[in-house]
Design brief:
Helices cover about 15% and strands about 30% of the residues. By secondary structure, it is an alpha+beta fold. It is elongated, with a radius of gyration of 19 Å.
Length: about 250
């Protein structure tokens, strides 16, 4: 089971939950451009994209561990990236992959990422119309089953904390493994291989690196049409280096 993790360069919250500008009644936060990027908080699938603000809804593939101890599916909604041409509905994103950036797409003042968390799976069309925001001269659009972001997401240990506003729980060194008596999944050992080849990575932990075995491993890790492409191999290697490649 994965912990849901806020993995960015710098935590500088420029608008808090239920903020006075455009977050009245909204549990979303705005991350200033110093965040630089957003890495996927969990392994999940893009359920919807709304082009007017480049809003993206990412739903976890499995139940995840929330920072407050809750275990459930999670949906994260992000807005304002200038360019999401690399993203599409149905695309699988792996935890730790950089997939979103601060921007000014939509009704926005200043480059940032608007991020909101919904408890459970993607619902309806992803959001509903909230309160009118006089200062922003627009309505807030709220993710279903809103959840306090700091209670949902751990924060990666390496994140520079500049303007945190809330108490955040650190993910810890072993960010991807959570003790759970019902979780019987086993993983290959985390490798220290510095190269860029999945073959080399598997060999470094003395695992059969043949195409046939890599295809079996890929299927266990939700890559059903394994052809040995650079993209597929990179995903497998990233999982291996993080100790989360399923056996």
């Amino acid at each position: 089971m994965e912990k849901a993790i806020l993995d960015i360069k710098e935590l500088d919250i420029i608008q808090k939950m239920n903020g006075s500008y455009s977050h009245n009644g909204d549990k979303a936060i705005d991350l200033g451009k110093a965040c630089s990027y957003l890495r996927a908080p969990f392994t999940g699938t893009i359920k919807r994209i709304y082009k007017n603000s480049n809003a993206v809804w990412l739903e976890s593939s499995e139940k995840v561990m929330y920072a407050d101890g809750t275990v459930d599916y999670m949906t994260v909604m992000t807005l304002h990236d200038n360019n999401i041409s690399n993203l599409k509905v149905g695309q699988k994103i792996y935890q730790g992959e950089t997939y979103y950036h601060p921007g000014v797409k939509g009704n926005v003042t200043g480059s940032h990422i608007h991020i909101a968390v919904g408890k459970g799976k993607f619902r309806g069309n992803g959001w509903y119309k909230g309160k009118y925001q006089p200062k922003a001269k627009s309505y807030a659009w709220l993710i279903y089953n809103q959840y306090d972001v700091n209670k949902a997401l751990f924060i990666a240990d390496k994140v520079k904390q500049t303007n945190t506003l809330y108490k955040w729980k650190l993910a810890g060194d072993d960010i991807n493994k959570v003790d759970n008596s019902t979780d019987k999944q086993s993983y290959y050992s985390k490798c220290l291989y510095k190269g860029s080849s999945i073959v080399g990575g598997l060999k470094s932990i003395k695992v059969d690196s043949s195409f046939i075995n890599r295809k079996k491993i890929a299927k266990k890790n939700n890559i059903d049409d394994y052809r040995g492409t650079a993209e597929q191999n990179t995903k497998l290697l990233n999982l291996l280096k993080k100790g989360k490649l399923k056996k």
